[in-house]
Structure formats: structure tokens, C-alpha cells
Specification:
The chain has 107 residues and is mainly alpha-helical. It is 88% helix and 0% strand.
Length: 107
């Protein structure tokens, strides 16, 4: 039925969006230095405790916390930068569309 098709399309879109989000997160993670990739992967992806990460990496818990904090800060900065860039690009496209519409209307 139409409802089933609509629900299936929504589920497919959700799956695609999650896949795109995951790929983007992986891409952002790869921009970090290895020492940051390790702590982020262990903490967020593998959901390890700080104490477990310290043992795995043979580092003090304070060092792990610092590395994690710096890594997340770098990721936040990169994300805000990217969102700002996308917003500017969308604004340019929107403004160009308005300019084209105005010039077509004045012909």
C-alpha cells in the first residue's frame, strides 16, 4: 500500500542519513593526530571508561582526560567551521537565486 511504501522510503532515508553521518564522523576523526584518534575511539566508539583507556594506552588517567578534552575541542571547532562554511555556501546560492530572479523580472 501507499503507507507501506512511504514508511519504507522514510526508513531508507534514515538509514542513508545515518550512513552519511557515520562516514563524516570517520572522516573528521581521521583529521586528528593518532594520539587523539586513540582516545576518542576507545571512549566514544568502544565506550571504555577513562581508567580502562589509561591501562590500554599505558597513560595516566589525567593524561587521557586531557587528550580526550583536546580531541573533542578540535572536533567541535572543525564541525563549527564546516557548518559555517556550508551556511555561507547556502547563502551565496540563495542570494544568486534572488539576483537571477530580480534580473529576469526586470527584462
Amino acid at each position: 500500500s501507499d503507507v507501506d511504501l512511504k514508511n519504507e522510503a522514510i526508513m531508507a532515508q534514515d538509514t542513508l542519513q545515518r550512513s552519511n553521518d557515520y562516514a563524516y564522523a570517520q572522516q573528521m576523526l581521521r583529521t586528528l593526530a593518532i594520539k587523539y584518534q586513540e582516545v576518542v575511539t576507545l571512549r566514544i566508539i568502544e565506550q571504555k571508561k577513562i581508567s580502562e583507556i589509561a591501562i590500554i594506552l599505558n597513560k595516566k588517567e589525567g593524561t587521557v582526560k586531557s587528550l580526550l578534552s583536546r580531541a573533542l575541542s578540535k572536533l567541535r571547532t572543525e564541525l563549527v567551521s564546516r557548518e559555517t562554511q556550508l551556511f555561507r555556501e547556502e547563502s551565496i546560492v540563495a542570494n544568486e537565486g534572488q539576483t537571477i530572479a530580480k534580473s529576469e523580472g526586470s527584462v
